[in-house]
Amino acid sequence: xxxxxxxxxxxxIPLVALAAAGLGCRQAPxxxxxPPALPVKVEVARRxxxxxxxxxxxxxxxxxxxxxxxxxxxHITRIFVRSGARVVAGAPLVQIDxxxxxxxLKAQEDARAAKAAGLAYTRDQFxxxxxxxxxxxxxxxxxxxxxxxxxxxxxxxEAAQSQVRQEREQLQYYTVSAPAEGSVGDIPVRVGDRxxxxxxxxxxLGSGLLEVYVSVxxxxxxxxxxxxxxxxxxxxxRVVADTHVTFVAPQVDDPxxxxxxxxxxxxxxxxxxxxxxxxxxxxxxxxxPVVPVxxxxxxSGQYFAFVAAEEKGGLxxxxxxxxxxxxxxxxxxxxDGIRDGDKVVxxxxxxxxxxxxxxxxx
Length: 362
What we know:
Layout: H1 7-27, E1 38-40, E2 42-44, E3 46-62, E4 66-68, E5 74-79, E6 86-87, E7 92-96, H2 99-135, H3 140-172, E8 175-177, E9 182-184, E10 194-195, E11 202-205, E12 209-217, E13 229-233, E14 239-244, E15 247-248, E16 258-266, E17 276-292, E18 296-299, E19 302-311, E20 314-328, E21 331-336, E22 343-345, E23 357-360
Parallel strand pairs: 1-23
Antiparallel strand pairs: 2-22, 3-12, 3-17, 4-11, 5-7, 5-10, 6-9, 7-8, 9-11, 12-16, 13-14, 13-17, 15-16, 17-21, 18-19, 19-20, 20-21, 20-23
Helix pairs in contact: 2-3
């Protein structure tokens, strides 16, 4: 005997089926609907004047520097200054033992005194012979001989006086003095050292203008000429001096295959002689597009940027490889890959893929 089905169970079957059908309709994606456009910020690439330049390591030299070497030989007995001291023209720097030269000068002065006494005696003899000749006691030949002896004694005294002046002048060289005002450089010698005329005592660095020495590879020598702009920069890349080329070496340095150029620099902004600096040689100026630094990403050593391109009535993000140059302010100079007027995406690039629709934010 069958039991009758419960009426609630009969109604449950069609309700479950309807619920399943309704759920299936809500989960099925609609076909052909495009993904929503991502809001991004865009900037139009603009062209700006950019220097065509090359940076080199350069050296600053003082235009007033002088290598101080002695003009005599001997042992150093005293050093009057220390490295870095400021001196005026004529200030003593180094004393070389003058004892030998003083003895030589004393001997020459004694010889001069003897010559002077001999001249006085010869003059008296000449006056005596001349008086005797006037009286007819002696001959003309005796008078001529006396005159010749007097002239010879006068010449000997003049030679002795000249020798004394020369030895006295030589004695002054034993005190080495500053030829001009400036700062004393390194002093490689010590008291007691024997020096010659080829020994470097110190270097005197004059104040005023410096010169920047730049060695340019021979490949760029054809673009070198007087007046080429040069910018001197500090370690942070800040330009501390603007100048121009005033000297181009007429020949190539064989070991380095470079051409030396020089440019004057004012000794300000903390610049010092013999300092290494960065020198930027500006070959010319050209206009190139720039894009914000935040718009450029680097992947596996290659730089990329997204551009909002017009496609099918809308904007689509297109990833382009770019070749960048130096940074100007907050922008990269783009050498290739971006054209003037391109709409460059500058925000949300981490969420973009090539071909994704985008819309500019206000």
